[in-house]
Design goal:
mainly beta; two-stranded antiparallel ribbon; 125 residues; structural constituent of ribosome; RPP3; 12% helix
Length: 125
Amino acid sequence: MGVFTFVCRSSGGEWSAKQLSGDLEASAASTFDLQRLLVQEALAVDSTGGVQSSFSMVSPSSAVFQVIIGGGGGGGAFIGAGAPGGTAAGSGGGGAAAPDAPPAPEEKKEEKEESDDDMGFSLFD
């Protein structure tokens, strides 16, 4: 499974991207074209499975783009765009539960509908 994280910046109407820890780079006129190029660059390095990607704008002129290749079933996510300290984490999907695991029982709680009397005041007084 390959995870490729890129920092993208716009300057003079052109978007450019550099891999956070690696040598991959690309530039294009739009973010859409840049994403397509970066996916192709990542696939040239690792083509072992399906592709998931996430693009998150951080400011009007910068973004983070992540490409996840392989890693089983869905569930990929990008977490922490713009978080303090610039932390970012990727999840490549966890796959399905073990076939002999019993299904978790569903709990149903009946919620009592609140009325204005429960709050000690009425909205229509």
